[in-house]
Amino acid sequence: TIVILDFGSQYTQLIARRIREFNVFSVVLPCTAPLSDVLALNPKGIILSGGPSSVYDADAPAADPKVLTTELPILGICYGLQFITHHLGGKVHPADKREYGHARVQIANHNRLFAGLPQEINVWMSHGDSAVQLPEGFTQTAQTSSALASIANEEKRIWAVQFHPEVNHSEKGSELLRNFVIEICGAKPDWTPEHFIQSTVERVRAQVGPKGHAICGLSGGVDSSVAAVLVHKAIGDRLTCIFVNNGVLRKEEFAKVQATMREKLGLKVIAVDAGERFLSRLSGITDPEAKRKIIGNEFIAVFDDEAEKILKDLETKGVAEHDAEGNEVAWLVQGTLYPDVIESSSVKGPSQTIKSHHNVGGLPENMKLKLIEPLRDLFKDEVRRIGRDLGMPEEILERQPFPGPGLAVRILGEITPDRVAILQEADAVVVEEVKAAGLYRQLWQSFAVLLPVKTVGVMGDQRTYAYTCAIRAVTSEDGMTADWAPLPYEVLKTISSRIVNEVRGINRVVYDITSKPPGTIEWE
Ligand code: XMP
User: Fold this and answer.
1) What CATH fold (topology level) applies to the domain 2-184?
2) 144 close to 105: Cβ distance less than 8 angstroms
3) Is the CB–ligand 1 distance for residue 359 below 6 Å?
4) Which residues are part of a known binding site for ATP?
5) pLDDT (tens digit per residue) in 178-222
6) CA distances from 520 to 350, 424, 458 (A)
7) Which tens digit of pLDDT belongs to each residue from 447-485?
């Protein structure tokens, strides 16, 4: 394990991902984590991340400086370099303003960190404060034309760079990190998908015990499916999955997901067709947040009912488990991912996160369900890798994200059964054509939006007056920012003519050319 202490840089998670690409496990802890927590993970080395502060700020993130005296190898990145300099007796020169950009670094001393790297590399630099006087025993090992770029004290096993090797724009950044993790720290590259699957399955099996039961809500997406398959591998049919039709799924999705989950993944699935119940609650509602709230609450209500039935059934059959107070207990599987875990414990706190979307609002307190989160150590791309190793079909693993409130946030204005049917047809055309053009996997999302705007058209000799449909296609790394995708005109042309000809109720198609920010990906 490599521990990364997070001082609040937007790139901290990237460091962890890069290291995991070497099949070495890495953990991100807030910089305020007690040293005992860090050492409890038995790390081979520690990385101090970048961060937005200056070491002189009154509220500069406070890590225990004793972290510098553990004798474990240490790599400081950006703020990490200044932290090391400041706390080991050097001097950091404060700057008024930070500047980001490319820089050319000349390596003066090819120490172990720079082994195998060329004389000069182009890197992504964050010019802010700079170290002006090095702590005793340190030497400068690289510089840019105007500033210090790297320092080291090989005897103390401390290295630091002012630039960001974890960022893709940094040439040889990955090699540098590999030098640190593999060569200097001696971490073993044994964190492989097989290892993860095996240890997770064993852990879940031990957690749930020989007789315990678990329940999992499926959405048809990657995370919940992989989580379910892992738990199923551990406890077999003592896992029951619940899949709810909320009335705003895509065309034929309710049937298709059930078939895949049962036939291809062998899961025990209870499918609840609550479409009408959802749609009647949504009737007359036009406010986007109100739609989300209704769907969220309704989902919890439906899920609870089913979970309760499952628990009652176990009780009747005499196979239920009970806690010391005699309450029936079972496990709830959730597909929480590592970014959520880091986010909720980060120094910035959850308040600064941009995302405010959650599929499940939480379960009522009186439900005796204990959480299993088999994916809480993984990033999204790692979940896909695990899914592949589990032999899961690509149609699930490569599925584009689909929001919990489904088509409800893509039908602007009121949601009616008619409008849902119209959008389902249009959406199916978009998915088909994007797939046919071989673009589906490159796009973060591609979909249709139904506008409550009617326009005049002409079909044959007939005047038409029907809805407008917007096509949205974006590329993105994580959904936080996104660029509108320049879909080829030919693809747009086919999509447009197919929708207007095949989907009754739409007579005009427009293309959304807004990036995020300032737009959002969804229209509501
Ligand atoms: P926006 O529209 O905020 O979307 O740019 C960013 C990502 O989040 C998805 N999204 C949601 N997911 N419940 C969800 O589970 C929601 O209410 C929700 N709203 C947006 C969106 O599809 C995109 O991937």
Assistant:
1) Rossmann fold (3.40.50)
2) yes
3) yes
4) 219-225
5) 999 999 999 999 999 999 999 999 999 999 999 999 999 999 999
6) 20, 21, 33
7) 999 999 999 999 889 999 999 999 999 999 878 889 999
Q: Which residue has the tokens 């005047």?
A: 463
Tell me how crowded residue 190 is: count the other CB atoms within 10 A of its CB: 10
- Sign of the torsion formed by the C-alpha atoms of 50, 54, 56 and 61: negative
Helix (H, G, I), strand (E, B) or coil at 74: strand
- 172-187 pLDDT per residue, tens: 999 999 999 999 999 9
HEC per residue, 473-508: EEECCCCCCEEECCCCHHHHHHHHHHHHHHCCCEEE
The strand ranges marked E within 257-403 are: 269-273, 321-322, 328-333, 369-372
β partners of residue 483: 475
CATH assignment of 193-397, among 1.10.1740.10, 3.40.50.970, 3.40.50.620, 3.40.1190.20: 3.40.50.620
Distance 291 CA to ligand 1 centre (A): 13
The set of catalytic residues is 78, 164, 166
Residue 326 Cα to chain centre, angstroms: 38
Contact criterion met (CB below 8 Å) for 101 and 125: yes
Asked if 2-184 and 193-397 have one fold, the answer is yes
As a whole-number percent, the residues of the chain with pLDDT over 90 amount to 81
Q: Is the beta carbon of 292 within 6 A of some atom in ligand 1?
A: yes
Is residue 410 in contact with ligand 1, taking CB distance under 6 Å? no
